[in-house]
Amino acid sequence: MLDFTWGDDAFPLRFTAADDGPVLASVTTGVDAVEPRRPEQRARPALVEVLAVGEGRGLGSMRAIRTAIGDRLRLVEHRAASAGGRSTLTLVQRDERTGLVVTTRIERFAGTAAYRVSSVLENRGAAPVLLQQVTSGTFIGLTGHLGDAVGVDLWTARSEWCAENRWSSTALGGTAGLADIDAALHGHFARGSIALTGHSTWPSGEWVPVAVLEHRDSGRALAWEVEHNGPWRWELDTLFDPAEALALALLGPTDVDHGWLHRLEPGGSFSTVPASIALAEGGFAGAIGQLTEHRRRSHLDVHADTARPLVFNDYMNALMGDPTTEKLLPLIDAAASVGAEVFCIDAGWYDDGGDWWPSVGAWEPSTVRFGERGLPGVLQVIRDRGMTPGLWVEPEVVGVRSPVARTLPEEAFMHRAGVRIVEHDRYFLDLRSPAARAHLDAVFDRLIGEYGARYFKWDYNVTPGSGPDADAASPGDGLLGHARALLTWVVDLRRRHPGVVLEACSSGAQRMDSATLARFDLQSTTDQQDARRYAAIAAAAPAAMPPEMAGDWAYPQSEWSDERIAFTLVTGLSGRLYLSGNLDRLDERQLGLVREATAAYPEVVRHHARALPSWPLGLPAWDAPQVALATASAAQTLAFVWNRQEDATSVALAFPALRGREIEVQTVFPTALPVWPTSWDAATGVLTVDLTGAGEAARVLRLRLR
Question: Keywords in UniProt for this one (predicted)?
Answer without folding.
Answer: Glycosidase, Hydrolase
